[in-house]
Design a protein that fits this description.
single chain, alpha/beta, 5 strands
């Protein structure tokens, strides 16, 4: 049997939630989540958490919200 994987999940919208939930329920270890920075949403343009961020916070996962993925600091953090 193969050892469990250590996974960093990248996602932001609501449709990414089922995939993240499935990974959390699997034998693999979700080490962290990378999602887009908080932005104004909805009619009132209130700044709110993305669905993936809300789940990550609820589950106590490490969270990273970089402005750009190509930033060298992001790569260093992921390593």
């Amino acid at each position: 049997m193969v050892d469990p994987l250590r996974i960093v999940f990248l996602g932001t919208p609501l449709f990414a939630i089922p995939t993240l939930r499935a990974l959390l329920a699997s034998r693999h270890q979700v080490c962290g989540v990378v999602t887009q920075p908080d932005r104004p949403r909805g009619r009132g343009q209130q700044v709110s958490d993305s669905p993936v961020k809300a789940l990550a916070v609820e589950r106590g996962l490490s969270l990273l919200q970089p402005g750009r993925l190509r930033n060298t600091a992001v790569a260093a953090t992921l390593r």
